[in-house]
Design brief:
This protein has about 120 residues and is an all-alpha fold. The protein is built from six helices and no strands. It is elongated and about 60 Å long.
């Protein structure tokens, strides 16, 4: 993998780790990885394995697409973020989350429709 892609991966991992409030050690512990592995990935020094990436994706509850450079819109990135969170849940929790989002979306659409009619 070209070095600039490894740097991109490392920078994205660092950003996401920090968004979750994890230190490198905390993330390593949660994923059963060595802290050196996290450090090397974040510095763009390590072309990591599928197993390591999968562990990171599952621990952080993200979509793999977020870690790799792509030409996607903000809306697509938001959708990928949600998909990653959804995939990190158990099947039962996925159904709860989907029903909750569905209900919330219905309420927001009704609110938007009502506000348009009252103008």
């Amino acid at each position: 993998m070209p070095e600039n892609k490894l740097l991109y991966l490392g920078n994205r991992l660092r950003e996401i780790r920090r968004e979750h409030g994890f230190t490198q050690q905390q993330l390593a512990d949660r994923c059963n990885l060595a802290v050196k592995t996290i450090q090397d990935i974040e510095k763009g020094k390590k072309n990591t394995s599928y197993e390591t990436l999968n562990a990171l994706i599952e621990c952080l509850g993200i979509s793999a697409n977020i870690l790799f450079p792509a030409k996607i819109s903000i809306e697509d990135e938001i959708l990928q973020h949600f998909i990653g969170k959804l995939q990190s849940c158990s099947p039962e929790d996925q159904m709860i989350l989907l029903k909750t989002v569905d209900c919330l979306a219905d309420q927001l659409q009704t609110r938007h429709h009502n506000s348009k009619n009252h103008k």
